[in-house]
């Protein structure tokens, strides 16, 4: 049964409180039993979704993890998206695998650039959004100002579902519109410990604001929300537990169950009998004790059974999936069955790659998981030249994960690494050393971007003949034009009308 599945992501600007909200949702769902504030008591208390060393050092989420929990008969699949602006590519792929999202906004800062960028990705894929305005226990901007900013900047109808009773030093709780109750802070830490007032006495200013919020904005409309036209807005404090239960209940009650997924001109319904899914992420070495490699598959249709044979589109021959994994925070369980909307991990040794479709009949191909043209290109230089073989293996693994892209120049031997953002370079160097014992440096490259080339055979041959010094092959053997500047790309496009120079490549 797919209707009890809710597969969602949390999107935000760094430091808006996404990691804390993730952790509190997992606590409420019983997936973890220890609330660990970021940097509260050293590394042992990092949030459960942030497991990579570089994440722990910098306090950001770098990789997308999957966390499954159950509550009141609903299975929640929470996909943790990288919160750093450099990770738009990995985040984009994660958002292809969800049916809805929670957008976290800092009450003091409002909508920040990264939030807006991630929202646009959601809009591109018609992913409905629930908004959580966080940190109302601290000084913040007025509630109406924040609501109007969401409405104006994101061109969305907003429908407040709760309201802060004061903010910062005057914070006295959160009023819930549906139940007409106030969640009150308690104890020295002023957390929400479960005390709700059914017949609240509110300060006059708060009572007036609540009345204005109720009549001044549209009522919640589930159809408008699911179409991506309206966002319900909840105020709260993830750190102090205000609004966390309401978030889970809103996702359970209103977020869509598994949706149809695009496969060219066709939409594959979750009701289809055939088992189908797509790989949106590959992660190596999640467990440092075992050099494992997990492909994350979003189930699109059918009922998967352990041991079943599925055919990856990139391979063409069936593989038996004997040890599929479900993720409960950092704990794993072997999955005997999985339904549409579930995320399962498939251990493999390089067989599965990001963008692969897995299916029983091998007749469909899911679309919309592209590679993006890199914005930063670097050469890799080994500190120990005898480790060339290990470097090649590492770069192959990391490019399969989508952390980097590797380009092999037609002339010259030095491989070129392409990334979308600067942080990916730091992750690359860190993981080369930690996981592959390869010490490497990154040097400037003569190129600034790349474009995939396609066109008639004769035109391609002519182009290759005159531009060999600027050509490379990607890991699939496809031809790439390495450009020194955006002007360079424009000039070649103008000069070679028969060729297309693409900034994306469908997997």
From TrEMBL:
One of its GO terms (biological process) is regulation of translational termination. Residues 187-199 have a biased composition (Basic and acidic residues). Keywords: Cytoplasm, GTP-binding, Nucleotide-binding, Protein biosynthesis. One of its GO terms (cellular component) is cytosol. GO terms for molecular function: GTP binding; GTPase activity; guanosine tetraphosphate binding; translation release factor activity, codon nonspecific; translation release factor activity, codon specific. GTP binds at residues 12-19, 80-84, 134-137. It is found in: Cytoplasm. InterPro entries: EF-G-like_DII (IPR053905), EFG_III/V (IPR035647), G_TR_CS (IPR031157), P-loop_NTPase (IPR027417), PrfC (IPR004548), RF3_C (IPR032090), RF3_dom_3_sf (IPR038467), RF3_GTP-bd (IPR041732). NCBIfam families: prfC (TIGR00503), PRK00741.1 (NF001964), small_GTP (TIGR00231). Increases the formation of ribosomal termination complexes and stimulates activities of RF-1 and RF-2. It binds guanine nucleotides and has strong preference for UGA stop codons. It may interact directly with the ribosome. The stimulation of RF-1 and RF-2 is significantly reduced by GTP and GDP, but not by GMP. Belongs to the TRAFAC class translation factor GTPase superfamily. Classic translation factor GTPase family. PrfC subfamily. This is Peptide chain release factor 3. It comes from Altericroceibacterium spongiae. The lineage of its organism: Bacteria, Pseudomonadati, Pseudomonadota, Alphaproteobacteria, Sphingomonadales.
